[in-house]
TrEMBL record:
<dbReference type="GO" id="GO:0035513">
    <property type="term" value="P:oxidative RNA demethylation"/>
</dbReference>
<dbReference type="InterPro" id="IPR027450">
    <property type="entry name" value="AlkB-like"/>
</dbReference>
<keyword id="KW-0223">Dioxygenase</keyword>
<dbReference type="InterPro" id="IPR004574">
    <property type="entry name" value="Alkb"/>
</dbReference>
<dbReference type="InterPro" id="IPR005123">
    <property type="entry name" value="Oxoglu/Fe-dep_dioxygenase_dom"/>
</dbReference>
<comment type="similarity">
    <text>Belongs to the alkB family.</text>
</comment>
<dbReference type="GO" id="GO:0035515">
    <property type="term" value="F:oxidative RNA demethylase activity"/>
</dbReference>
<feature type="binding site">
    <location>
        <position position="316"/>
    </location>
    <ligand>
        <name>Fe cation</name>
    </ligand>
</feature>
<dbReference type="GO" id="GO:0008198">
    <property type="term" value="F:ferrous iron binding"/>
</dbReference>
<dbReference type="GO" id="GO:0005737">
    <property type="term" value="C:cytoplasm"/>
</dbReference>
<feature type="domain" description="Fe2OG dioxygenase">
    <location>
        <begin position="242"/>
        <end position="362"/>
    </location>
</feature>
<dbReference type="GO" id="GO:0035516">
    <property type="term" value="F:broad specificity oxidative DNA demethylase activity"/>
</dbReference>
<keyword id="KW-0408">Iron</keyword>
<keyword id="KW-0479">Metal-binding</keyword>
<feature type="binding site">
    <location>
        <position position="262"/>
    </location>
    <ligand>
        <name>Fe cation</name>
    </ligand>
</feature>
<dbReference type="Pfam" id="PF13532">
    <property type="entry name" value="2OG-FeII_Oxy_2"/>
</dbReference>
<feature type="binding site">
    <location>
        <position position="260"/>
    </location>
    <ligand>
        <name>Fe cation</name>
    </ligand>
</feature>
Length: 362
């Protein structure tokens, strides 16, 4: 993903220092987390400080005067509260934009449908096209890599003149021929290795650009309609947002998204509509260079962020996700998902965050 991993560069800029500070944050007073013997039993000091992190849910619940620099954006016909930063035009925060049912729906889609071909994922380059990964993981199947044949080559042609050189299929554990020498990986392991999938126009991460020659389907109508409705506060009156591509990010417990600017879309006046699902995280909104001190805020499941105009030029990233059970803030999701047969989804989301960000490319 984005962001330098050069440790020497780790704290050269204000943005990197903030990333490091929050990445290393440890909650205080948690028994059994640290093996430090220097502290009295049960009193762990924690590490770091979240007091500067803006909490829009708390501001909404308090329903009082807002801290300096934060405002409410009034948008005719838009029936969700919207917050903004007075000195950061083009950034909008819609706390609790999605109901628990809607969150469950989009989590399910993100795991079952969005990684399906022709959509590409981070696994495509390694294993070739993988169908029905979610079902395979649920059924404890195993992916085996097969030598490419002419037929498979045809099926695997990306349309960009290159072919996927690999072809993989799911088999039962018992079907694996011992000593055959083909590489095999559990579907559950692959599910945990899923980092991103791309919907609509396919984003090519190696070139950091859209590759229009890659086969793709339109963004699902329900997601396009949601994005159009949620984009309203950031759109000029009467204009409609046109969702053409989406990137779905899957974060495990220690994953982060380094500071970056999304600059591959033609018209920066149009917003990026960014949906948060699953575990709470810290989102950093910085300036046009990494030298500006970023503002940190909590993003929780169901929150939506819009970045348009000037805000699109700002560095942003996710240095920390909270998978600790007393920090993740997904109790509504957990009770909703517990009633269903999908314990796989429940287990997944307890340790993960999913971000769907929807873009107008042209
Ligand atoms: C991105 C992005 C933010 C998030 O994918 O470009 O900025 O909340 N995601 O995960
Ligand atoms: Mn981004």
């Amino acid at each position: 993903m984005y962001g330098a991993s050069d440790p020497a560069a780790a704290d050269r800029t204000a943005f990197r220092r903030a990333e490091k500070q929050y990445k290393l944050y440890k909650p205080p007073n948690l028994k059994g987390r640290s093996r430090s013997r220097s502290k009295p039993d049960g009193v762990e000091g924690g590490c770091g400080d979240l007091s500067a992190v803006v909490d829009f849910h708390a501001l909404l619940a308090a329903d009082g005067e807002l801290p300096a620099g934060i405002g409410r954006s009034n948008c005719a016909g838009f029936d969700h509260p919207v917050f903004c930063f007075l000195d950061r035009p083009g950034f909008y925060f819609i706390p609790g934009a999605l109901s628990t049912e809607e969150q469950c729906y989009w989590i399910r889609e993100s795991l079952k449908t969005f990684p399906q071909p022709p959509n590409r994922t981070n696994l495509t380059a390694i294993y070739g096209s993988i169908s029905d990964l979610f079902v395979a993981a649920k059924n404890r199947k195993i992916l085996v890599e097969v030598e490419n044949s002419d037929v498979q080559e045809k099926e695997q042609n990306n349309g960009d003149g290159k072919t996927e050189s690999k072809y993989s299929k799911f088999v039962e554990d018992s079907e694996i021929q011992k000593g055959e020498g083909c590489r095999s990986t559990r579907a559950t392991t692959l599910m945990r290795k899923l980092r991103w999938s791309t919907l609509g126009l396919q984003f090519d991460w190696s070139k950091r650009n859209y590759d229009v020659s890659l086969p793709h389907k339109r963004i699902p109508d329900a997601l396009a309609n949601l994005a159009k409705n949620m984009a309203i506060p950031a759109m000029p009156f009467g204009e409609e947002f046109k969702p053409e591509a989406a990137i779905v990010n899957y974060y495990g417990p220690s994953d982060m998204l380094g500071g970056h600017v999304d600059d591959m879309e033609a018209d920066w006046t149009k917003p990026i509509v960014s949906i948060s699902l699953g575990c709470k995280c810290i989102f950093l909104l910085g300036g046009k260079t990494r030298d500006e001190v970023p503002t940190a805020m909590f993003l929780r499941s169901g929150d939506i962020v819009l970045m348009a105009g000037e805000a699109r030029e700002r560095f942003h990233g996710v240095p920390r996700i909270f998978t600790e059970s007393d920090q993740q803030e997904i109790s509504a999701l957990v009770s909703q998902l517990s009633g269903e047969d999908d314990c796989f989804i429940l287990d997944y989301i307890k340790n993960s965050r999913i971000n769907i960000n929807i873009r107008q490319v042209y």
